[in-house]
Amino acid sequence: MALDHRNPVLRVVPGPSDINANGHIFGGWILSQMDIAAGIVASRRAGGSVATIAIERMEFIAPIHLRDVISVFAEVERVGRTSMAIRIEVIATRDRGATDIKVTEGLFTFVALDEQHRPRAVDIQ
User: Where in the numbering of this chain does the HotDog ACOT-type domain appear (predicted)?
Assistant: First the structure.
């Protein structure tokens, strides 16, 4: 399933401190960006606080380079009683905007939290 690539949830440029020994961006850095974007979408859907409880799947497809502009796209794939699965795709724009490359994708699960940080029901829409 392809996500709508018109409106990224997050757009960011990695910096020199995000580079690993191979000259590519650390996998943990992009994982963090994906979690931030998915958390925004999950929080909006839940109407409140959420927590990441699982990364069901994540695949690194291509390396991210230092000068890439990273766009993170996320949408709710499914909603359970207290949890939501958020599908994420990351596109790297390089060559001064001439090339777009899908670099990673994943499926993250979040649980909605109440004021005591316990799971609560997600409203069905």
Answer: 4-116
